[in-house]
Amino acid sequence: MSTADPIHHLAESAHWEAALRSGSYSRSTLGRSLEDEGFLHCSTAAQVSGVLGRYYSGYAGDLLLLTIDPDLLEAPLHWDVANPVTGEAFPHIYGPLNPAAVVATRLLAPPHAAPPESHVLRADGLELEVLTAGAAVRRLRVADVSQPDGWIDLALGHADPMTYRFEGGYLGAVVGRVANRLAGGRFPLEGQVVQVPTNEGSNTLHGGYEGFDRATWSVEHVEAARLRLTLTSPDGDDGFPGRVDLSVTYAVSPGEVRIDYSASADAPTPFNVTNHTYVNLDGEGSGPIDDHLLQVHASAFTPSGPDLLPTGEVRAVDGTPFDLRAPRRLGDVLALDDEQLRRGQGLDHNFVLDGASGGSDGLRLAARLEGANGKALEVFTDQPGLQVYTGAHFDHTATGPSGSTYGPRAGVALETQGFPDAPNHDEFPDTILRPGIPFHSTTIWRISG
Predict the structure, then answer these.
(1) What is the pLDDT of residues 227-252, one digit of tens each?
(2) Angle at the Cα of 276 (from 366 to 310), degrees rounded to 5?
(3) Which of 8, 353, 406, 432 has the highest Cβ tally under 10 A?
(4) What is the SS3 assignment for 374?
(5) For 52-88, what is each residue's pLDDT tens digit?
(6) pLDDT over 80 (residue 3)
(7) 444: left (phi over 0), alpha (psi -120 to 50) or beta
(8) What is the DSSP letter of 361?
(9) Prior bond to 228 cis, omega within 30?
(10) How far apart (Å, rounded) are the C-alpha atoms in residues 102 and 105?
(11) Which of 293, 275, 284, 261 is nearest to 140 (CA)?
């Protein structure tokens, strides 16, 4: 993928199949022809839901969402005002679409304007809302007598659940097939070098254009405090080899959220899955997390190069801003002058967790976060790494359930994981999922205060 942002087009399956045979696609919205319209109507990811609602809410057939790299178009692309009332600008292709510019496709089944399914799990003093879109955590509420309604929401989420279908920004989602980054979208596997589409400059981030965060998961089992979601990632999904069948189970109990992952593959494939929830223990929409105290049980981290890919080094945290073995105020850490912090615009790094996973449940304490209000979150995992990301990218374009917009450092993500770009580093723990060797992993969030 180039540095240009992708655009999207909604196509009827029969029209797209004909385009693949002919090498040229010339349909616009609702299947009207290029000859009639003069252009192909496209949209940004944030506009797809609106287009579905306006034009396809009553359409009874399947649609294909085409993801297009503008730099691969042979016909010119222009941004035109499509709605004279709102002045909203949409991209238009003035000419036929060459199929080689389409870097991903996703099947959309009716009803096309329906929001994702929502399930709220409850335990005494705790509520967890999970959506079928991306298996995403939208809200994590705990009882708090200081709040007007008696609850405080600790997780960043989108106000409009439809946002999760196309432009979730990974908020709360399960990400994969390979969480974090793959250098150049390439990796060695079984004596071959595999190339997958790249969606972050020259690299692949969180599984690519159509990662697990963009998928609609199936509900296999639901009860008051437990939800099991499943997904099949077919062979060739976003370029990755092998079919993967996976599930994620959310379970709540007083003061605790448990996330269990299970997966199996019919051929060797890279696999690294995590949950990408951002938390703010002072409450969603309360401002930056600068006054939070963070402790990470890690004596080393993996430094990043300019492209945020690990260099391969495992560096001791001693004498660096990454020494979080004792609690440190995040605002103080982020204010330090350090090349690694400049590269990540704050913390966006993988920590090498200390010790083997242990205890009666096989888990280790990875991190403890404490808000200015005294609430604390402990993260337990059996994974070797923890990505700490302090949310530098938030720019007030996302609005949360409270109505507040999210600015830089609105939340911090504590992502339990295998190491980034592990398939390209023999010295990193193996992240290849192989037939006959199922993957199982558990993450626990323990909340107090």
Answers:
(1) 999 999 999 999 999 999 999 999 99
(2) 70
(3) 406
(4) coil
(5) 988 999 999 999 999 999 999 999 999 987 666 677 8
(6) no
(7) beta
(8) T
(9) no
(10) 7
(11) 284
Which structure tokens are listed for 334?
A: 């982020």
Give yes or no: 396 in active site. no
Looking at residue 239, its amino acid is G
pTM over 0.70: yes
Contact predicate 190/284, CB 8 Å: no
Query: Of all residues in the chain, what percent are helix, strand and coil, respectively (each to 5)?
Result: 15, 40, 45
Give the number of other Cβ atoms within 10 Å of residue 70's Cβ. 16
Token pair listed for 304: 């990043």
Query: In the chain, pLDDT over 70 holds for what percent of residues?
Result: 97
> What are the b/e assignments for 389-409, b being 16+ CB within 10 Å?
bbbeebeeebbbbeebebeeb
Q: Cβ(172)–Cβ(157) under 8 Å?
A: yes
Candidate from 93-97, 104-108, 328-332 with smallest mean pLDDT: 104-108
Q: Any idea what DSSP says for residue 42?
A: -
Residue 209 phi/psi, 5° resolution?
Answer: -60, -40
Report how far residue 203's alpha carbon sits from residue 218's, in angstroms, rounded to the nearest whole number. Answer: 29
Nearest to 411 by CA among 377, 442, 446: 377
Cα dist from 244 to 197, 247, 420, 438, whole Å: 18, 10, 20, 10
Q: How far apart are the first and last CA of the chain?
A: 45
DSSP string for 141-190: EEE-TTSTTSEEE-B---SSTTHHHH--TTTT-EE-SB-SEEGGGEEEET
Catalytic residue, candidates 129, 167, 370, 415 = 415
Burial of residue 353, with CB atoms counted within 10 A of its CB: 0-12 exposed, 13-18 middle, 19 or more buried = buried
Q: What is the pLDDT of residues 260-307, one digit of tens each?
A: 999 999 999 999 999 999 999 999 999 999 999 999 999 999 999 999
Q: Is the pLDDT of residue 169 over 50?
A: yes
Residue 284 near residue 157 (C-beta atoms within 8 A):
yes
117 is catalytic: no
Contact 428, 300 (CB under 8 A): no
Phi, psi of 239 (to 5 degrees): 90, -10
